[in-house]
Design a protein that fits this description.
This protein has helices at about 30-40, 70-85, 115-120, 125; strands at about 1-5, 45-50, 60-65, 90-95, 100-105, 110-115, 130-135. By secondary structure, it is an alpha/beta fold.
Protein backbone atom coordinates (compact mmCIF):
# COMPACT_ATOMS: atom_id res chain seq x y z
CA UNK A 1 0.00 0.00 0.00
CA UNK A 2 1.32 3.42 -0.96
CA UNK A 3 0.17 6.32 1.15
CA UNK A 4 0.54 9.95 0.10
CA UNK A 5 0.29 12.25 3.09
CA UNK A 6 0.87 15.89 3.78
CA UNK A 7 3.97 16.63 5.78
CA UNK A 8 5.05 19.52 7.90
CA UNK A 9 3.44 21.52 10.64
CA UNK A 10 -0.26 21.42 11.40
CA UNK A 11 -2.19 23.54 8.93
CA UNK A 12 -5.35 25.43 9.66
CA UNK A 13 -8.59 24.15 8.07
CA UNK A 14 -8.61 27.16 5.73
CA UNK A 15 -5.07 26.64 4.46
CA UNK A 16 -4.96 25.35 0.88
CA UNK A 17 -3.96 21.72 0.49
CA UNK A 18 -0.69 21.03 -1.23
CA UNK A 19 -1.10 19.35 -4.61
CA UNK A 20 -0.57 15.62 -4.70
CA UNK A 21 2.78 14.86 -6.31
CA UNK A 22 2.78 11.10 -5.88
CA UNK A 23 2.60 8.27 -6.03
CA UNK A 24 4.44 8.71 -9.28
CA UNK A 25 2.97 5.49 -10.68
CA UNK A 26 -0.44 7.12 -11.10
CA UNK A 27 -1.26 8.83 -14.41
CA UNK A 28 -1.19 12.63 -14.34
CA UNK A 29 -4.92 12.90 -15.10
CA UNK A 30 -5.76 10.63 -12.15
CA UNK A 31 -3.58 12.77 -9.88
CA UNK A 32 -5.31 15.84 -11.35
CA UNK A 33 -8.70 14.39 -10.39
CA UNK A 34 -7.42 13.69 -6.86
CA UNK A 35 -6.06 17.23 -6.53
CA UNK A 36 -9.33 18.75 -7.75
CA UNK A 37 -11.37 16.66 -5.30
CA UNK A 38 -9.06 17.52 -2.40
CA UNK A 39 -9.24 21.22 -3.31
CA UNK A 40 -12.99 20.99 -2.66
CA UNK A 41 -12.33 19.24 0.67
CA UNK A 42 -13.33 15.73 -0.41
CA UNK A 43 -12.86 13.19 2.38
CA UNK A 44 -11.30 9.71 2.36
CA UNK A 45 -9.78 10.04 -1.12
CA UNK A 46 -8.60 6.67 -2.42
CA UNK A 47 -7.36 5.50 -5.81
CA UNK A 48 -7.87 1.82 -6.59
CA UNK A 49 -5.50 0.43 -9.21
CA UNK A 50 -7.62 -2.08 -11.13
CA UNK A 51 -5.11 -2.95 -13.85
CA UNK A 52 -4.33 -6.40 -12.39
CA UNK A 53 -7.89 -7.22 -11.36
CA UNK A 54 -9.48 -7.70 -14.76
CA UNK A 55 -11.60 -4.59 -14.30
CA UNK A 56 -13.24 -2.64 -17.09
CA UNK A 57 -11.10 0.42 -16.33
CA UNK A 58 -7.59 1.01 -15.00
CA UNK A 59 -8.37 3.11 -11.92
CA UNK A 60 -11.19 4.16 -9.60
CA UNK A 61 -10.89 7.48 -7.81
CA UNK A 62 -13.22 7.25 -4.80
CA UNK A 63 -14.02 10.09 -2.42
CA UNK A 64 -16.73 11.37 -0.09
CA UNK A 65 -18.61 14.65 0.12
CA UNK A 66 -20.52 15.68 3.22
CA UNK A 67 -23.65 17.02 1.50
CA UNK A 68 -25.19 17.27 -2.00
CA UNK A 69 -23.81 20.77 -2.59
CA UNK A 70 -20.24 19.68 -1.80
CA UNK A 71 -20.61 16.52 -3.90
CA UNK A 72 -21.68 18.68 -6.85
CA UNK A 73 -18.80 21.10 -6.24
CA UNK A 74 -16.30 18.22 -6.22
CA UNK A 75 -17.76 16.84 -9.47
CA UNK A 76 -17.63 20.28 -11.09
CA UNK A 77 -14.02 20.82 -9.98
CA UNK A 78 -12.89 17.42 -11.27
CA UNK A 79 -14.65 17.94 -14.60
CA UNK A 80 -13.26 21.46 -15.05
CA UNK A 81 -9.70 20.54 -14.02
CA UNK A 82 -9.54 17.53 -16.32
CA UNK A 83 -11.00 19.55 -19.22
CA UNK A 84 -8.73 22.57 -18.86
CA UNK A 85 -5.48 20.91 -17.75
CA UNK A 86 -5.63 17.58 -19.59
CA UNK A 87 -8.15 18.10 -22.41
CA UNK A 88 -10.29 15.25 -21.07
CA UNK A 89 -14.06 15.15 -20.86
CA UNK A 90 -16.11 12.40 -19.22
CA UNK A 91 -17.68 9.93 -21.62
CA UNK A 92 -20.46 9.53 -19.07
CA UNK A 93 -21.62 11.53 -16.05
CA UNK A 94 -24.24 9.85 -13.85
CA UNK A 95 -25.99 10.95 -10.66
CA UNK A 96 -25.31 14.65 -11.12
CA UNK A 97 -28.91 15.68 -10.37
CA UNK A 98 -29.31 13.65 -7.16
CA UNK A 99 -25.75 14.19 -5.91
CA UNK A 100 -25.72 11.10 -3.66
CA UNK A 101 -23.28 9.28 -5.94
CA UNK A 102 -21.75 11.04 -8.91
CA UNK A 103 -19.88 8.88 -11.41
CA UNK A 104 -17.57 10.45 -14.01
CA UNK A 105 -16.30 7.94 -16.57
CA UNK A 106 -13.08 8.87 -18.37
CA UNK A 107 -12.60 5.37 -19.89
CA UNK A 108 -9.17 4.67 -18.40
CA UNK A 109 -10.40 5.76 -14.96
CA UNK A 110 -13.70 6.43 -13.22
CA UNK A 111 -14.27 9.04 -10.52
CA UNK A 112 -16.83 8.10 -7.83
CA UNK A 113 -18.01 10.91 -5.54
CA UNK A 114 -20.22 9.57 -2.77
CA UNK A 115 -22.27 10.82 0.13
CA UNK A 116 -21.25 9.07 3.36
CA UNK A 117 -24.18 6.63 3.56
CA UNK A 118 -24.04 5.78 -0.13
CA UNK A 119 -20.30 5.05 0.01
CA UNK A 120 -20.76 2.79 3.03
CA UNK A 121 -23.64 0.95 1.34
CA UNK A 122 -21.86 0.22 -1.96
CA UNK A 123 -18.40 -0.21 -0.35
CA UNK A 124 -16.40 -0.27 -3.59
CA UNK A 125 -13.16 -0.71 -1.67
CA UNK A 126 -14.42 -4.06 -0.35
CA UNK A 127 -15.81 -5.15 -3.72
CA UNK A 128 -12.46 -4.41 -5.35
CA UNK A 129 -10.44 -5.58 -2.34
CA UNK A 130 -7.79 -7.21 -4.53
CA UNK A 131 -6.90 -3.85 -6.15
CA UNK A 132 -3.79 -1.93 -5.11
CA UNK A 133 -4.88 0.99 -2.96
CA UNK A 134 -3.43 4.52 -2.85
CA UNK A 135 -4.72 6.70 0.00
CA UNK A 136 -4.53 10.47 0.27
CA UNK A 137 -4.84 12.23 3.62
CA UNK A 138 -7.64 14.75 4.20
Amino acid sequence: MVTAKKSGAHKSPTAPKAPVRGPSKLPRSVVGAVDAARDKKALDVVVLDLRKTGGFTDYFVVCTGTNPRQIQAIADAVTETLRTEFGERPALAEGVKKSEWVLLDYFSFVVHIFGRECRAFYDLERLWGNAARHEFSD
